Amino acid sequence: MQRPLPPLNALRAFEAAGRLGSFKDAAAELHVTHGAVSQHVRLLETWLGAPLFERHNRRVSLTPAARAYLEEIGPLFGRLAQATARYGLPATVSRMLSVNAPATFTLRWLVPRLARFNAAHPGIDVNVQTSNESVERLTDACDVVIRGGPDTFYGYSMRPFLSEERLPVCSPALLQRVPLTQPGDIRRHTLLHTSSLPRLWPDWLAKASMPAFQPAAVLTFDHFYLTLQAAIEGLGVAMGPTALVADDLAAGRLVAPLDGPRLPSRSYCTYVPDDKAPNELVAVFRAWLEREGTRSQTASSRCPKR
C-alpha cells in the first residue's frame, strides 16, 4: 500500500517557516521567494485539511497542532541528511562567508550567538575578522561588514539590525561596598574610561547636570572590552552599551543602578558590497543578525536595573 506522504517541497517550506517563525526568513534560507514559501504552506494546509499558521499583521505563529507536528517532522530532516551523508553523497556543501566586525562587539555579542547560527546553517562556514577601521578604509574584501551607523558608503548597501543606549554599569559587589542610588553618588566611585572613547563620561555627566565633576579615581584602558571586564571585576563604573552588556545584566554579573540619564548611541548595521548583495549566504546571515538583534533588544528591555 502506498504511503500517503504530503508534498515534500511543501513540507520543507513548512519546517523552515515554523522553525524560524517567519516566511521571509524561510525564503532566505531556502533561496526562494516569500511568495513561494506562502504557496507551499497553503498547499500543505490544503493537503492536511487544517491550518498550520495563525496570520497576524506582519508575523505568523504556529497553531498548537502545527507546533506538535513540527516537533515530529523536524528531526526527520536531520536524519535524512545524516543518511545521505552515510550513503556517500554530501548532505551539505561547505560554503565560506567572511565577516568583519569590531572586536568588542564580536567578543561580547556575536561570539555568544554564533552557535545558534551554526546549528541552523551547518553548511555555512563563517570566517570572522575583527577591525575598527571604517568601511571605506578596509583593505581586505569581506562579504559582510558590521559597523555603527546608519552611514552611507558608495558601493555598499546598509541595513541596521541592533540599536542601543549607554548607561552606567558596575558589579553588584561594588554596590555593596559603595552604594550608587543617584547620579551624585558617582563622585564616590572610580570611573572606568576607554582611551578611544574619551567623550562617554563627559557627555553623560553633562546630561546628568554635573559637568564640573571630580570622581574618587579614574582608570583608563586602551580597549573597550577591557573596560567592561574591569567593571565586571568590581574595579569601578563603566559606561555600558545596552546591547553589549545585556547578557551580563541578565546573568547578574553587572547591574545598571541608575534609571537615567541614558546616552543615545549609534545602531549596529551591516554593510555589504553591491557585488555581494545577491549572495544567498549574505542574505541568510543578514536575516539571522536581524532576528538576533530583535531578540537581544527584547531581552535587554526585561533586564532588572539593580
Automatic annotation (TrEMBL):
PANTHER family documented for this protein: HTH-TYPE TRANSCRIPTIONAL REGULATOR, HTH-TYPE TRANSCRIPTIONAL REGULATOR TRPI
Record keywords: DNA-binding, Transcription, Transcription regulation
InterPro entries, per database record: LysR-type_TF_proteobact-type (IPR058163), LysR_HTH_N (IPR000847), LysR_subst-bd (IPR005119), WH-like_DNA-bd_sf (IPR036388), WH_DNA-bd_sf (IPR036390)
Source organism of this protein record: Caballeronia telluris
A molecular function (GO) term: sequence-specific DNA binding
Gene3D superfamilies in UniProt: Periplasmic binding protein-like II (3.40.190.10), Winged helix-like DNA-binding domain superfamily/Winged helix DNA-binding domain (1.10.10.10)
Pfam families: HTH_1, LysR_substrate
Boundaries of every HTH lysR-type domain copy: 6-63
A GO biological-process term: DNA-templated transcription
Family: Belongs to the LysR transcriptional regulatory family.
Protein name, per record: LysR family transcriptional regulator
